Amino acid sequence: MAAIQTNTLTLNESKKYIINNIKEQIRCLKTGDRCSVVLISGPPGIGKSDLMEQIASELGFGLNAQYLGTMLIEQFGMPLPTLKENSRFQKWSDPDFYSIENLRVQPKSSDMPIILFMDDIHLATKTIQTYFFQLLTYRSIHNKKMPDNFVMVGAGNRAKDRAGAQAILAPIVNRFYFLDIEANANDWVKNFAIPNNVRQDIISFIEIYPDLLMSEPLESQPWASPRSWTYFSQELNQMEIEHDLDISALTTIGKGHIGVEYTTRFIEFVKLYMDWNPSQFLIKGVKLPSIKDNSKIQNYTLMAAIIGEFLKNVRNENWNLQDKSIKSQIKVVQQLFDGILEQCPEIAPLGLRSLILSDKASKENAMLYYELTKSKPELVSAIKLMIGDE
Predict the structure, then answer these.
(1) How far, CA to CA in Å, does 372 sit from each of 9, 45, 194, 342?
(2) How many alpha carbons lie under 13 Å from residue 237 in its C-beta half-sphere?
(3) Residue 67, phi-psi category: left (phi > 0), alpha (psi -120 to 50), beta (remainder)
């Protein structure tokens, strides 16, 4: 018998399993059958909450996010005053997480299911866990039944993640369906960083150094994760509005988000990236340097810098590809890829991915694809290969 593969899933790979479990729960609600509840288990900062928002939006479901680490017993219901003196039974209020007033994602219509997302399960005390045991087993707390259109998904960190994890009680574990996930650079770049406009210098750095996307989780000091790289990107963009992004600013902001070691590596890369001054090629008409005379890392940083600047300029012009300056810049990008495909074709997909997937839902992006590839069969072939590999 072949050995069982122990590889963990990427976030994007886990989606189909999470959606499948949600649909299985919906089926069981109709038939009266019992089934497990999926629990997304992985390190902090890799995007579990963002993934659930994405899934809820794609399905058209509502998302009710509850953080078990800060949940109070009172949230599971409060005793109500009895209406009759001789009443034999205590009456309780509904648990407040049955409410749909403050959903993270709104359903497309009132008859769509609501996902009760039980986040930070690893921080739940034993008392809170016993309440969720009732919920998992009987879909009821204090005889207050969970709404029929609710399904459940859990998420938490692992003991090795230094996230203050509490042991999950064995009877509860046996009712969960654990999905082990890990951060993956290719998955993050393709499915999160590019669509969400993370800075091109950060994307390019992670593409060429994928092992630096995630460092070992630390306590009381910054460490790298998809979340911290994203926050780092946002902070740099804000700083750039009013100030120059010099090495001092990069160091201060970087070490506060991803730690000293990773910031040092990033700045070494950015120095090469910044030295190219891409506006001189795109705007000022300076001739591109000879690709064949550059090292591989020089060509990579040249490509990344030009593409990052080009995409920023295109967005600033609201994707007006008929703008005289943008048309001129497209020719520069075409010339760049002519040289890259001839001298070091293995790095071309990294640049092409940012161009093709950026703002991928827009019709303007399709026009950019057309403008870049017309009369360029080698570029079309490279893009087809890149898309096939993805």
Answers:
(1) 35, 36, 19, 17
(2) 14
(3) beta
3-state SS string over the chain? CCCCCCCCECHHHHHHHHHHHHHHHHHHHHHCCCCCEEEEECCCCCCHHHHHHHHHHHHCCEEEEEEHHHCCHHHHCCEECCCCCCCCCCEECCCHHHCCCCCCECCCCCCCCEEEEEECHHHCCHHHHHHHHHHHHHCEECCEECCCCEEEEEEECCHHHCCCCCCCCHHHHCCEEEEEECCCHHHHHHHHHCCCCCCHHHHHHHHHCHHHCCCCCCCCCCCCCHHHHHHHHHHHHHHHHHCCCCHHHHHHHHHHHCCHHHHHHHHHHHHHHHHCCCHHHHCCCCCCCCHHHCCHHHHHHHHHHHHHHHHHHHHHCCCCCCCHHHHHHHHHHHHHHHHHHHHCHHHHHHHHHHHHHCCCCCHHHHHHHHHHHCCCHHHHHHHHHHHHHC
Give the torsion sign (CA, 210, 187, 41, 256): positive
Cα 36 from Cα 162, distance rounded (Å): 27
In sequence order, the 6+-apart residues with CB closer than 8 A to the CB of 160 are none
Using one digit for the tens of pLDDT, what is the confidence trace for 20-67?
999 999 999 999 999 999 999 988 889 999 999 999 999 999 999 998
Whole-angstrom Cα distance, residue 284 to residue 313? 14
Compute the half-sphere exposure of residue 298: CA atoms within 13 Å on the CB side of its CA. Answer: 12
* 329 in Cβ contact with 319 (< 8 Å): no
Q: What integer best gives the mean pLDDT of the chain? A: 86
Mean pLDDT of 79-94: 74
Bridge partners of residue 150, in order along the sequence: 114
Q: Of 18, 196, 33, which is closest to residue 117 (Cα–Cα)?
A: 18
pTM: 0.80
